[in-house]
Amino acid sequence: MLEGALRSAVVRRRIIELADELDMQNAVRLDRELRCAIFDPSVDEIVLDIMSNGGILEIGQQLAEVVYAARSHKRIIGYTNSVALSTGYLLMAACTKAVVAPGGWVGAVGVAAGEIDPVLGRMIEAAPVYGTSSEVKARTLKLVPFDDEAKRAEIARLIDRDYSRLVAAIARYRGVSEDQVRRNYGDGACVPADEALQRGMIDRIATIPECGTFDWSAAPKLLAELQKGSI
What we know:
The protein has 231 residues and is an alpha/beta fold. It has helices at 2-9, 24-39, 57-70, 87-94, 135-138, 149-174, 178-184, 193-199, 219-227; strands at residues 13-18, 45-50, 75-80, 83-85, 97-100, 105-107, 112-114, 116-117, 122-123, 129-132, 190-192, 204-205. Helix 3 (57-70) runs parallel beside helix 4 (87-94) and helix 6 (149-174) packs across helix 7.
């Protein structure tokens, strides 16, 4: 009897990892694993374990929409014990809850324009960056603006458009206003866990074993078994 009570109390969890840049290959894998977990009746809860500096915005937006839709079917915890930055944070924001381990970092909410490998679907390593959505984000990148004024203006227009889309998505996922995302979510900076919690960027600071493995609604049943002397 106690075994049955314990089984009902322990949430059956599937951990899906992103430990790299969010490129096309990783996005396809994550999409497949997420859909399998959603339709698996033996899985109660999904943990999206993120260790990523980001990736291509368009790819991240598509996958984040899948995560956001999936959370209406099963609880999805976005988690990092290291970094979930840029589109990595976008994925975390799309989850049911955002949880960061002590010492973890999130944020870098912003957009950078650079050269993309059309095959791999990721920015070319060490390639110049032509513009960013904030000065804070520019400090971490090799910024080489175009000399041509018309090209600079077009890059700025595209960055503003994509940054607005990013902000709108995060605001919708987190249930806050776009203005709050712009003002409180770091303006392109990386934010430590304690500050991120204060800013409303995450819901909790915890390790994976602490972020929801036990269903406390089953506690009365466990207590009854204990009182019967089952253990």
